[in-house]
Design goal:
Quinone Oxidoreductase, Chain A, domain 1; Rossmann fold
Length: about 325
């Protein structure tokens, strides 16, 4: 019997339990996937403990299975599915369908899946796809990164941070990354950051302004939230942009637009559910990410892997910030 992670009550990491659960055969438009690698994201933590945005929590069924990305082989196809056949190796990473991945076998809409090329490993795909699709929306649409840009990136040694810094530096931008510890600074620098600031030891705003000769950065990408958001506005140049894409430290308080007028700042909020809701846009982002992986934009293989049985420890390590890079469950 396939094993699945279930959350029956919101709470700490040990709220996750492993049960035997066969999802059955696929319905119309679905595929049944035998999974070989599953990505672990901070969004999974937020759903499990109930700290995701209110509109997201309102749609969350209880009990539920966490997880929003995976890689595996097609075991069966439902009626109307002609783009895949049994045995195909496929992947998915959809923020519009944010639960269900922590399982050995699952059902999933075929339109949200795509063929994974043979030269991309399962673990690399599960470690990169959701985060890289997120980064693609952030650096291609929220603020189109170009050569010569200065970027302030919070949590630069984290899963999204390492991907964003590599992709942005590949595009010719200079990334100033903030991290919480000296050892993470070394990782940030090795992943493309031009400068790394240990924000627990020095004022990241003052240091950013020093690096940019008092001008400030063109854009700040913030996945940390309330702990750094307001201060970050002071590190952005006139007419620069703040892109909020996460809230690892907590949701940002409401902001008065007057706070933006002094330097003419632009503010936007990335949401994977919004940016990947349209299937064609989602597939285009996924294709761009697969092309970037194959082009060697990202370092591969430097991921933390956990067995499905160790899912509780994986969440503990992630939310206590003991990890660097991406986490992957291997069923």
């Amino acid at each position: 019997m396939p094993r699945t992670v279930i959350v029956e009550e919101l709470g700490a990491a040990d709220a996750m339990k492993i049960v035997d659960l066969d999802p059955g055969m696929p319905g119309p438009g679905e595929v049944r996937i035998r999974q070989t690698a599953i990505g672990v994201n901070f969004a999974d933590v937020h759903y499990r403990r109930g700290t995701a945005p209110k509109h997201s929590m309102a749609k969350l069924p209880i009990p539920f299975t966490p997880g929003l990305e995976g890689v595996g082989f097609v075991e069966a196809v439902g009626e109307g599915v002609d783009q895949f056949k049994v045995g195909d190796r496929i992947a998915y990473a959809s923020a519009s369908l944010t639960i269900g991945a922590y399982a050995e076998v699952r059902l999933f809409p075929a339109e949200r899946c795509f063929i994974l090329p043979d030269d991309i490993r399962d673990i690399d795909a599960a470690a990169l796809l959701y985060r890289a699709i997120t980064v693609q929306g952030i650096i291609r649409q929220c603020y189109p990164v170009k050569a010569g840009d200065w970027i302030l990136l919070h949590a630069a040694a984290g899963g999204i941070g390492t991907i964003l810094s590599q992709w942005a530096s590949h595009l010719g931008a200079s990334v100033i990354g903030t991290v919480s510890a000296p050892e993470k600074a070394e990782l940030a620098l090795s992943n493309g950051c031009a400068h790394a600031i240990v924000h627990t030891q020095e004022d990241f705003v003052a240091r950013t302004l020093e690096i940019t000769n008092g001008k400030g950065v063109d854009v700040c990408f913030d996945g940390v939230g309330i702990a750094v958001f307001v201060d970050s506005l002071r590190a952005i140049r006139r007419y620069g942009t703040m892109v909020s894409f996460g809230q690892a430290s907590g949701l940002v308080d409401p902001i008065d637009p007057i706070e933006l007028q002094h330097e003419g700042l632009y503010l936007t909020k990335f949401s994977g559910g919004t940016y990947n809701d349209d299937v064609d846009e989602y597939q285009a982002r996924a294709a761009d990410v697969v092309a970037a992986i194959r082009a060697g934009v990202f370092k591969l293989g430097n991921h933390l892997t956990y067995s499905l049985e160790d899912v509780v420890q994986a969440h503990i390590d992630l939310e206590t910030r003991k990890t660097t890079g991406s986490l992957v469950l291997v069923p």
